[in-house]
Amino acid sequence: MKKIYIIAMAAIMALCATAALAAEKLDRLAAKEAKKLEKEGWMIRPGSLPLEQQLLKSYELQSKTDEDLYPLYIMGEATSVGENYDAAKTAAISLALNNLAGQIQTELTALIENTVVNKQLTAEEAVSISETVMTSKSLISQSLGRTMPVMECYRLNSKKNTEVLVRIAYSQKKAKAQALKAVKEEMERKGEKVNEQLDKILGL
Hints:
Layout: H1 2-39, H2 51-63, E1 73-82, H3 85-117, H4 123-134, H5 137-143, E2 148-156, E3 162-171, H6 172-189, H7 196-202
Antiparallel strand pairs: 1-3, 2-3
C-alpha cells in the first residue's frame, strides 16, 4: 500500500512539474511577442490589460485540448485601419470572424471527405454538402455567437489613421455545431435532401 502511495505521489509531482514548465514556456512566448509588437509601435488603450497578459491568455486558450487532444478553442486574428479607433476595431472583429469561418470551412470539408472514405456518405451526397459548405462562409460567420476577445491593441500610421489588431477565441465544439446547423438550414432552403444519416454524421 505504501509503495502504491509513493508511486502515485511521484506521478502527481511529475505532472505538476510538467504543468509548471508548460506555464513557464507560455510566459516566455508572451513576453517575447509583447516586446516584438511594442517595438512595432503597438499600444494598448488606457484601462486595458498589459499586452503581455493579453497574449498569455491567448496562448493559454490555444494550448487547451480535450480528452482526444483536439484544441478546445479556435483563434481568429485580423487587423484593420480606420479614421477612428471604433471603426477600425469593428472592421477588425468582422475580419477575425471571417478568419474563424474559413478555418471551420476547412474542418467541415475534411469531415465530409472522411465520411466518404468510411462509406457513411455517397459521393453524390458529399458533393452536395461540400458545395454548400464552400459557398456558406458568410453564413458560418453569421452563425457564430458572441466571441471571446483575448487581445486588442492599436497603433497610428503615417497618415494618423488608427490600425487595430484583435485576436478572438471561440469554442471549437460550439463553432462546429453552429456551422453545421447553418449548412443544414441552407441545404433545406435550397430544397436539397438532408436525411437522418447525414444528421447523425454531422452531429445534429
